[in-house]
Amino acid sequence: MANRAAIAGVAVTPVAVPDPPLLNAAGCHEPFALRCIVEIEDGAGRVGLGEAYGDDATRQALEAAAPALRGADPWNLASIWAAVAGASGGTGGKTPAPDGAEGAALNAPGAVRSRAANAYAALEVACLDLQGRQADVPVAELLGGRHRPAVEFSAYLFYKFGRHAPRDPAAQGAPPPADPWGEALDPAGIVAQARRMAERHGFGTFKLKGGVFPPEEEAAAVEALRDAFPRAPLRLDPNAVWSVPTAVRIGAALRESGGLEYYEDPTAGMEGMAEARRASGLPCATNMCVTSFGDLPRAVALRPVDFILSDHHFWGGLRATVRLSAFCRDFGLGVSMHSNTHLGVSLAAMVHVAAAMPHLTAACDTHYPWQEGHDVIAEAWRFEEGRLRVPEGPGLGVTLDRRRLAAMHEAWQRCGIRRRNDRDEMRRHVPGWEYRNPRW
Ligand code: GKR
Ligand code: MG
């Protein structure tokens, strides 16, 4: 291949993106969410992009791996994996392999939080983007080709405060400004938010992030959504802070009143989820109790869920996500996609991998609308009828806006946040607030 060239340099830039006060079982989103933007450049000046979590641990894992990547072949992903594993002091037996059987023994159950896997995923995305630019093909083709021309996303609804709490309570002056989404603390607020999501982005599937208010109140919000959007698939995700009896009781009531597309992590652990699924009769999904290839044998044996929610950031990259999709197809499981706060580079990776997944059975999650166009890419993504078209150009099909990258990096320098901490943010609103599991 005439344009094939080795890696000449790797840049890792931490950025802070404005984020509204969204609520979840762990607390409240801070005014800024952290991400890392990865640029891998070849000798011809072509740049491949990747995006990772922005906490210090992931950033340091990326920075530690970067020097070993210089001179490496971006097409040899095994050597990229070796560089990451080497830089993080070996795999420690906890790191999922990026792909293939060579690392199967390393796929320890529960390896979701492995920093090496998180770092590798972003570097793999950047290498695939670079490969695509060198070979003039889209990433979806490098992953085996597209199974769909566009990818459907769901509206991700959150209970939320109308504005952030002051970070320094002693400081005088105006309170932080209200955001355009307003407060959503009851069923009417959630329905209004859903209408705004549907009007602006055309979403036809709705997921409510639960685990915030007593379960009956959250079930009432789901019923209000059902009344407002009678034909729309609905999901509820309390992030595992309900006991098994609560999950069964609320689930059975929701099934009676019209069901859910899926009941996402109402309770903790595979055994608890298997019982909630059996006794409520609802289809269940997880991004919490099945999070690595090492979890799959038990998931097949216990059947805690009907859907596994993929996420290339912690399943070990895009190729591993395609492998997960094929596994789910072969073992009779549905597949959808989990999301965390992210920018347009990750969204590009999500779109390409979703297109290339042989089996994708429900609309994917995305937090993207909550970032209100704040992005590091030149042209923000636009949803049409809740869908994004798979870019046809080389690589991921997005380009970096260096001015925006610099401004968001400056925000990172100023904001003082170095690790996501929803609990302490919640305490700024509700003094003494504690995370409990199970809470209900
Ligand atoms: O953004 O607050 C949030 C979500 O709760 C996120 O952190 C979860 O990882 O979206 C996620 C989920 O589906 O559990
Ligand atoms: Mg979830």
Biggest β-sheet strands, sense, barrel: 7 strands, parallel
CATH superfamily of the largest domain: Enolase-like C-terminal domain
Protein structure class: alpha/beta
> How far apart are the first and last residues' alpha carbons, in Å?
59 Å
DSSP strand content: 15-25%
Question: Would you report the number of β strands?
Answer: 14
Runs with pLDDT <50, length 5+? 91-112
List strands and helices in order, with pairings:
Layout: E1 7-18, E2 23-24, E3 27-28, E4 32-42, E5 47-53, H1 56-69, H2 77-87, H3 115-135, H4 139-142, E6 150-152, E7 155-158, H5 187-201, E8 206-209, H6 215-228, E9 234-237, H7 244-256, E10 262-264, H8 270-280, E11 284-286, H9 296-302, E12 307-310, H10 312-315, H11 318-330, E13 334-337, H12 344-356, E14 387-389, H13 402-415, H14 422-429
Parallel strand pairs: 7-8, 8-9, 9-10, 10-11, 11-12, 12-13
Antiparallel strand pairs: 1-4, 2-3, 4-5, 6-14
The site of magnesium ion (MG) has 5 residues, from loops.
